[in-house]
Fold these 2 entries.
Entry 1:
Amino acid sequence: MKKKIHRDILVRFDSLPDVIEHGTINPVNACVNMHDVVKIIAPTQVTAFARYDPVEIIKYPHPTLRYQSKPLKRIDAALRETITEMFQLMYEAQGIGLAANQVDLPYRLFVLNIHEERSKEHEMVFINPVISKPKDPDEKEEGCLSLPGVYAPVRRPASIHLTALNLSGETIEGDFGGLLARAIQHETDHLDGILFIDRLADLVQKQLQDELDQFQKTHDANRSQNVIPPDEIIFDRLAAMESAYCV
Ligand SMILES: [Zn+2]
């Protein structure tokens, strides 16, 4: 994906110590993305929290996928743009749903489009979702953009009641069934750090073990090459973003 760069300045992470020494940014407010790039709003000082562009969908077992997000307390233009990019990434990966922590963000929101057509009228944004009144257990195959190629049957309620906010801050409330109910539950699970593989029967989980081990190997290799930063950098960044946007 070609990354949009607005007025932000990009600095290689390995040059960060020099930048800090010259007093140009406050590292607490800096934002490190998956490509070890620090984004700064202004070249001489950080005046606000730098916007984070989601650049890719993170894969199992990235630690952010286990992050339990707190409710969002504000929606601004930067967040709207982030959400537009989430839809873009979801479409590129041919998915129907994407949760914020799948793009390494700590916000309690997810996006959905369960239709074939990529049109605005089918795009749904759910902020601070709360599921209640689960009914009628059902089993259907699921997959996940953070576990590409892995599919397995997952038992979930066939219908649910949902309360959430949309991007305009208006309340969405209603009973949902079918694919929409399943997608809402799958994505809300993500916001609690739960993956669909956690909900599989033991036997099914065992059958997937080789595939999961392969994801682990790729993750370990990315860690050793610093493509994925150490946990403390990831969690410091998530905490800083959370303090700017969440309750
Ligand atoms: Zn998923």
Entry 2:
Amino acid sequence: MATRKTNEENRVPLYDVEFPPTEPALVTSETPLSSLNLNWAERDLPERMRTKHVHRLHPYLGKYIPQIVEVFLRKYFTPGQTILDPFAGSGTSLVQANELGINSVGYDISAFNVLLCRAKTAEYDFDHLKREIEDILKRVERDTSTSWTDLPLFAGLAVSDSIEMDDEYLHTWFAPRALNELMTYRRWIDQGEYQYADLLKVILSRSARSARLTTHFDLDFPKKPQTTPYWCYKHSRTCAPTTEALKFLQRYSADTLKRVKEFAALRTTARVDVFNVDSRIGGDIPVDGVITSPPYVGLIDYHEQHNYAYRLLGMIDQRSLEIGAAAEGSSKRAQKQYQNDIAAVFKRALEIMPIGGRMIVIAGDRSNLYEGIAKMIDVEVEDVLTRHVNRRTGRRSGEFYESVFIWRKRHGGSASVENSGSDHHSHPNGTGDE
Ligand SMILES: C[S@@+](CC[C@H](N)C(=O)[O-])C[C@H]1O[C@@H](n2cnc3c(N)ncnc32)[C@H](O)[C@@H]1O
């Protein structure tokens, strides 16, 4: 399939294989692991395919690509079975499982991520949804069409009396007009008795992300509000921070409707259950297996990246319960704690899985922590595959690899936990996320 490679792909030997990258839709339970080529070059798997339908309903840093999930769901699971993702994140596993008629259970400690998973996987009556989306926009346009043009472009950051919420973060990160528009939308979600309030909250959050006082090139983790024009590295010109939110609410309303419709054409009646719990202690629904990408050690702060959503939507922030929290760093002590925490989650999962059930874990394992985790939970290591992660989101340096650990729940007994499967794939030495 691939003909031309990017500069980065030219540097990575994994792209120099003879056989083409795997076509996920063609994978079956009979496909040998040794025949998989998970190194899709940019041309094989362009961004629009990696972010198809609801996968781009809202930005989320640290997701895996739907195609890798599809490969392993097709290989190890059948329609009607149930998979668990104890680190559901933005819901990639749940969406892909549903597409294949596989039931799914998801847990995540982040309330916003759970909201996003539910909004992505819900079933919608489109006429009704369209009416609700248009109705709330009309109300916001009507209620905010006052004299904002009279305000100087970056007039102080005090907001109008009509905004009840007294949150310093919101006042700091949004221009007055933008905050008024967002808060008006938020108030109508509360008062409008909308059936699809979760999806409206996702539209609100996505708009808020774009409407923050940030530079265009630092939307993931901006350090301080940008209140004056600046030189923009992304656009190679002088840009100014936005002062309004309505245009984003309008744009993302249309995009959301389109994406949800695209997924509806593929959606099955398979169940999706998502819970806002700490996977170390919560959740006991029986499942047939696991597919997941756990958090990394000290790398991504999953609450912080959606801080604006927590503030605007008044959701409970449980960042202190994040495993491998960025704030804890990646010291030896943090790594040991991480192994214990991940092992605790997987031990619980093994208890609710049948013997022989698969656990597919996709992780960047630069520090080689997963061999130890496999031993701690006493699973049979069937295989470990390595793939390169194209630099697709954010600006990073160096190469990124992720490993696919294929583990199996033992048939009881106390056999050695050393690798019982093939070892023809090199061990990972990197980390990555999409
Ligand atoms: C790498 S992300 C998963 C991304 C997901 N595969 C996707 O494609 O969107 C890891 C997730 O683990 C969640 N997490 C961290 N600690 C947790 C805990 N103690 N219990 C449940 N979820 C947790 C984070 O909130 C984050 O969403």
